[in-house]
Amino acid sequence: MCIKKNKSKNTVLSKTPKISDYTMEIFGNDERHKLEETQVERDLGIQLSDDLKWHTQAITAANKANSVLGMLKRTIVYWNEDICKQLYVTYVRPHLEYAASAWNPYRIGDEKRIENIQRRATKLAPSLKRLSYKERLEKLGLTTLKKRRERGDTIQYYKIAKGLNKVEYVAPNRAAPALNSIGPAANIRGYAHRLERQAVKDCAQREFFFSNRMVPVWNSLPEHIVNAKNTNDFKNLLDKFDKEKG
Fold this sequence. Notes:
The protein is mostly helical. The chain has twelve helices and six strands. Helix 2 runs antiparallel to helix 3. The chain is flat. The N terminus is likely disordered.
């Protein structure tokens, strides 16, 4: 049903509008609008490509962060460890991690492109320039971006497993088959929380999807961490476990 106005400015309802009526109302003429084909489209700040790969998004995120980092480098005269960390965490890192749970970079080239921005940022303080990347991170109290993405995935799955977040998967995660066997050897391969990773062939996009990529990290956690009472306890135990593991 379409609403039109006649010369007397009264509203008239038409039950069978033509296509041209809609195009006239939207575009102001009788010509149809032809949609153009694109390989990359932006949606909510994320670059979506037609092949569902994240190379373009990785480049975009790295360029934005690099631009801000360059601006800070030209603006700030005196750098020390505290200033370096505060400015990087506040103004640069958010560009590298915006919606990273959705576009998690899994290709080595994309991972390096993102990580190199943090490498540069940790060298801004003169006292850190001669240290290795690992030593610079320890001095600043930071971790690699890949480790932060894994941590975010693990915390998110904890919320899903405990029912704090409701997600309806078409193919939900299943317990590892070895744990479902009967007999004394039922639990020799790990704790009861271990999950089965889906076998994917010739589809990296599906292989590194959230429900699949977090399985190895989740299976590596001790049982007392998985059975934490609440989210804050889980985060604290997870951070302590990662620190001890190195």
